[in-house]
Amino acid sequence: MPKLGIIYNDNKPVACQIASQVQEQFQQQGWEVSLATGIGGLLGYSSPESPVCHTPMDKLAPPGFDETMKFCLVLGGDGTVLAAFRQLAPCGIPLLTVNTGHMGFLTETYVNQLPAALEQVSAEDYTIEERSMLSVQVMRGERLQWEALCLNEMVLNREPMTSMCHFEIKLGHHAPVDIAADGIIVSTPTGSTAYSLSSGGPVVTPDVPVLQLTPICPHSLASRALVFSDREALTIHSASEEHRLVMVVDGNGGCYVQPKDVVHIARSRYSAYFIRLERPEFFRVLREKLGWGLPHVAKPTSVELP
Predict the structure, then answer these.
(1) 48-71: buried (b, 16+ CB within 10 Å) or exposed (e) per residue?
(2) Could you say which of 90, 178, 216, 240 would form a disulfide bridge with 58 (CB–CB 3.0 to 4.6 Å)?
(3) Global confidence as pTM
């Protein structure tokens, strides 16, 4: 019996309705269907009073979801897609992502195209695109305080955000460097079009095996975004012995990082697998979603005055 998973945003009525309809449709066709909301992939926030607040990154899969699933349908916006990959990437399940939100930069299709998309996927007429993810861990001495999988980016900054911090950063075997900035972003190629882009970082195509380090409002003309091999691990800690830092992963959750804590970041052994109904065209998505590369419309060479 083939197995299908459905992860949906239960705050969106249309996502709830479609999830129920698809479940009934596939069960009638002899499929085993498991449903879950995206809330299990939301990381939540720790607090200064309770700094250890995490579930191991490979223990987030909802009941009934495992590597035997043919695919999983995700109904929601980009936040639901990010949460779904945190839940299912360790299982290696490919995801068909359907936009029921607004931007939908990470989604493959739309609600009005879903019947045709499901028919195509059921016939196994699709390709799979692999995207890299980050493994983020906060260590206090030898003790693991917090960890998470990350598809877009990890952000580290002080409270309040406008307070500058000195970060000590070590990349692979290279000598450590000091960066003075409001914060630091470490992103995957997928995340290069998110917060990193807004902070002045370059766009990186998804197939390039690199990571990106982008300072937020750096206090130096010499501090700019750095692109480096994803085979290199990164460690970060604050040069201050007085102020704690705040970490946010994929924009939805994180933890406090105390002055002597060390943040370890590396490419994860788990990848995100996107189902593609057509050949991936990254520049088309950039044009449609972000307006990149649109043709310039020239002004008229002459104007007739009344």
Answers:
(1) eeebebbeebeebbbeebbeebeb
(2) 90
(3) 0.90
Q: Cα separations (Å) of 174 from 100, 178, 239?
A: 44, 13, 18
CA quadruple 103, 107, 108, 109: dihedral positive or negative?
negative
Look up 78 and say whether it is catalytic.
Answer: yes
Contact at 8 Å (CB) between 294 and 115?
Answer: no
Question: Exposed/middle/buried for 213, CB within 10 Å: 0-12, 13-18, 19+?
Answer: buried
Q: Which residues in the chain come in under a pLDDT of 50?
A: none
Per-residue confidence (pLDDT) for residue 46, from 0 to 100: 57
| Closest C-alpha among 51, 38, 41 to residue 247 | 51
76: closest CA among 2, 153, 16, 161?
16
The Cα 183–Cα 300 span in angstroms is: 45
Please report the pLDDT score of residue 304 as a whole number.
58
If DSSP codes are grouped into helix, strand and coil, which group holds residue 287?
A: helix
Question: What does the block give as tokens for 167?
Answer: 């970060």
Per the structure block, which two tokens stand in for 136? 């983020």
Map out the domains of the chain with their CATH numbers: 3-131+270-290 (3.40.50.10330), 133-269 (2.60.200.30)
Q: How far apart are CA 56 and CA 270, in angstroms?
A: 13
| 113: number of Cβ within 10 Å | 14
- DSSP-derived 3-state class of residue 79: helix
179 near 169, Cβ under 8 Å?
Answer: yes
29 phi-psi bin (left φ>0, alpha ψ -120 to 50, beta other) = alpha
> Cα separation of 106 and 285, whole Å?
9
Tokens of 115: 């019947």
